[in-house]
Design brief:
By secondary structure, this protein is an alpha/beta fold. The chain contains 7 helices and 17 strands. A 9-stranded mixed sheet has the order 2-1-17-16-14-3-12-13-15. Strands 5-6-7-10-9-8 form a 6-stranded antiparallel β-barrel. The chain has a two-stranded parallel sheet with strand order 4-11.
Amino acid sequence: MKLSQFNFELPEELLAEYPSEHRDEARLMVLNREKQTIEHKQFKDVINYFDEGDVMMLNNTKVFPARMFGNKEKTGARIEVFLLRELNAEHRLWDVLVDPARKIRIGNKLFFGEDESLVAEVIDNTTSRGRTLRFLFDGSYEEFRKKLLQLGQTPLPKYIKRELEPEDEFRYQTIFAKHEGAVAAPTAGLHFSKHLMKRLEIKGVDFAEMTLHVGLGTFNPVEVEDLSKHKMDSEKIIIPEETCDVVNNALATKKKICAVGTTVMRTVESSVSASQRLNAYTGWTNKFIFPPYDFSIANCMITNFHTPKSTLMMMVAAFAGHDFIMEAYQEAIKEKYKFYTYGDAMLIL
């Protein structure tokens, strides 16, 4: 398929600046692939579509405060540093993005914190805005990580133009987040409240957790018309053995297996056995899913509304069918559903 087939006009006012007041009261569009029907619900109504023995697969990654602001030595220019991934713990080496990038060259030093107690030296260029930094810090590794957490801010996406607010720290994190390592939240999971999860549990729905540490590569724009030529960045994934047992048992008994989010879908599709079962795995994935694609594990999915021409939208189109998704997105625009990170949700059956 071609990139242009995933384009549509998205009015700016539909990009959600804030989450819904209560997690489980975002709007929910329900797509039935077999009947080609579209229903409009609230997220908490999701419980009505699942029964005992069905499985919801969750991404338990935890967002760390990846956005920092420092000052360049000599000039004092304010520089945004976005931590992408730790390259070497012992040497305190990190891959980062810097903004404005034109001012930052190899050998420059950056100072962080009011007391300038954390210093970083630029030791390499990686991409146009990418740099490798070596942090210079006297304390232990634990103290260093604590310092990063203290100086960092919740990395809300750039499209949200407002200032950070205290509740973002809590709302830009799923309630089941456990393993720190993501620089963006797995947004479909943001709609689950403690109350809703308890109700699902009482109904007999099983939760199967796995981890994909979301990197910024997920949001890299596709710049080639021929989708087969687009390369995804690699992201770290962990699928535990007990998760496989729960999922494979549900496969054997023909239950609903729901991927909560595109990150979960990428994770499970990255580790499927020849007999179409989920395998335990710890490693990296750069899987790019676009139509046409045969899915092996999940038979339903929950996802947010994605931006035009994004890899996330392409995956959803592969799952629901391109024409059906384009129709659903037009309906969402007409009904003023909120799009993107803090936006509304979709359940595809």
